[in-house]
Write a structure and sequence with these properties.
alpha+beta; 8 strands
Length: 322
């Protein structure tokens, strides 16, 4: 009975060990690719719990999310023979799940050594050998990221489709100390020149601004002067109009007064002509004498009375005695 119990315990332990070897987990962001007896299987396991045949299958975890491969210390020689060293180049890439089996079958689990690490070394040396130090270090450095990304993706699409190059980041290469000093001095001179150019632009801008302000002030003054002149002209025109109206009113008033006076005189003359008959004149003359305080006595009455009045009332002028 004891022997049977030991056998059961041993079988249980072996079973648990085998089960433990058969069950495994694949972390999130990875897939599991399986080798059976050294041969890559055409299936892959998703993240989570997976199973395999113990002692017969082997699993490799392959990342299928974004990953960054950093290639360090890449030497290259320019067309002029200057040795440069790129301390770090980072390549952001992603492997497609559906293409993973085919790429791993052709290039292994460490496919990135072939298509990223080795390819970066190759492309950097190709680039440096075709350009001068000035071009690599200054003129074309800003285009190197895009150049490497395009070069990598073009070759990968041809031979290993399914590996995507998302971006490439290149740090400034290290140059010999003497060259670096020369570039530092050149940059200092260039900085001084840029400062001088910028200062000249600022001064020019200030001068243009002041000129613009002066032009605006002159235009405002001219506008104000024109407005004042126009206002003065309108005032003068208004005064002229008022004076013309007043003159016209005065002339009309004087004309009306003269016409009225003329009409009155004409009518007075017509009235006088009708009124001043000889009889009325003599009557008036007599009334005027009658109202006179002088009284004449005697036989020698002035002839003016006898000749002008008395004949009309029947008194004859007496003849002196002969």
């Amino acid at each position: 009975l004891l022997d049977k119990l030991v056998i059961v315990v041993v079988l249980a332990a072996v079973s648990l060990s085998v089960l433990r070897l058969a069950v495994h987990t694949v972390p999130e962001g990875y897939i599991g690719v399986y080798y059976r007896a050294g041969k890559l299987l055409d299936k892959y396991g998703e993240s989570g719990i997976n199973y395999m045949i113990p002692f017969w299958d082997r699993v490799e975890e392959v990342q299928v999310t974004l990953q960054t491969d950093r290639v360090s210390d890449i030497p290259c020689g320019t067309s002029g023979g200057v040795i440069l060293t790129f301390s770090s180049i980072e390549v952001v890439n992603r492997l497609s799940k559906t293409a993973a089996i085919n790429i791993i079958k052709n290039y292994g689990v460490h496919y990135d050594h072939v298509w990223i690490f080795d390819k970066i070394h190759h492309e950097i040396n190709q680039f440096c050998s075709a350009h001068t130090l000035q071009e690599v270090y200054i003129d074309l450095f800003s285009t190197l990221d895009e150049f490497l990304a395009v070069a990598l993706q073009t070759e990968i699409d041809k031979y290993a489709p399914g590996l995507e190059i998302l971006s490439v980041r290149v740090t400034k290469p290290l140059v010999p100390a003497t060259v670096a000093e020369n570039y530092a001095a050149m940059e200092a001179q260039k900085t001084k020149l840029l400062v001088a150019i910028q200062k000249a632009k600022v001064d020019q801008q200030i001068a243009e601004t002041e000129k613009m302000k002066a032009e605006i002030a002159a235009q405002q003054a001219a506008s104000v002067s024109l407005i004042d002149k126009q206002r003065l002209i309108k005032e003068k025109e208004a005064e002229k109009t008022i004076m013309a109206i007043e003159d016209s009113m005065y002339l009309n008033r004087e004309k009306a007064y003269a016409d009225a006076e003329f009409y009155r005189n004409v009518k007075q003359a017509e009235s006088n002509q009708a009124l001043f008959t000889p009889e009325f004149i003599q009557y008036t003359f007599a009334m005027a004498l009658a109202n006179n305080t002088k009284i004449y006595f005697g036989d020698k009455i002035p002839n003016i009375l006898i000749d002008n009045i008395f004949p009309e009332i029947g008194i004859q002028k007496q003849q002196p005695p002969k």
